[in-house]
Amino acid sequence: MKTAIILGSVRKVRLGERVAKWVLESARAKNIDIELLDLKEYPLPFFDEPESPIMSKGNFINPAAMQWGAKLSEFDAFIFVAPEYNYSYSGVLKNALDYVYAQFKEKPAAIISYSGGPYAGVRMTQLLRNLLTAQGAVTLQEIINIAKAQEAINEDGTLVNEHFKEALDKQLNSLNSWHEVLKLKRAK
Ligand SMILES: Cc1cc2nc3c(=O)[nH]c(=O)nc-3n(C[C@H](O)[C@H](O)[C@H](O)COP(=O)(O)O)c2cc1C
Fold first, then answer.
1. Distance from the CA of 35 to the center of ligand 1, in angstroms?
2. What is the pLDDT of residues 88-133, one digit of tens each?
């Protein structure tokens, strides 16, 4: 299962980086083939292509968009590590997702929300699920919400709140199960 982590923040100093590191290292320890995709490395303008991704089938004018779409096509499964901005997902994540379509179709997608405060990004998760459904992804029931992520995970990605270890184990197992099912579906 070739898996991508997509981090939904591009701030210079971002809480999400430690969350992404924790997921990356935990998955690697389970021998999952996993890569962190940092939206900072894909400087996409606000979507301004002449055709929608459904119509253009990913043939974009902007080279960064071509690169982003091609990169996502490499993966079988996705984990979104996403902050909540104004009760929703970040603008940069929405924009990056507007650039693609087929790349998520019939593939499993897990969501891990986090916040610096007590609400853990729960409001955002429902909206992100909806968006991913529009793109044909199968979103997992096993959502993880991390409140006060600065206290739950150290800067180097080591876990402080052990509760999340079990939650991530379950989520990764579910991602793998859905991958096995959806791989067959895509092959039909
Ligand atoms: C524009 C903006 C909007 C925010 N809105 C929310 C919010 O709706 N709910 C919440 O729990 N935290 C909110 N926060 C606080 C974030 O949880 C906190 O800043 C966190 O560090 C953001 O993740 P990041 O550092 O990886 O970008 C917001 C932060 C920003 C910058």
1. 24
2. 999 999 999 999 989 999 999 999 999 999 999 999 999 999 999 9
Which structural domains are found in the chain, ordered by start? 2-187 (3.40.50.360)
* Amino acid, single-letter form, for residue 104: F
Q: Measured in angstroms, how far is the CA atom of residue 77 from the centroid of ligand 1?
A: 26
Residue 119 Cβ contacting ligand 1 at under 6 Å:
yes
Torsion of CA 76, 170, 144, 22, to 10 degrees: -80
C-beta neighbour count of 121 within 10 angstroms = 28
CA of 4 to the centre of ligand 1 (A): 23
Three-state secondary structure call for residue 43: coil
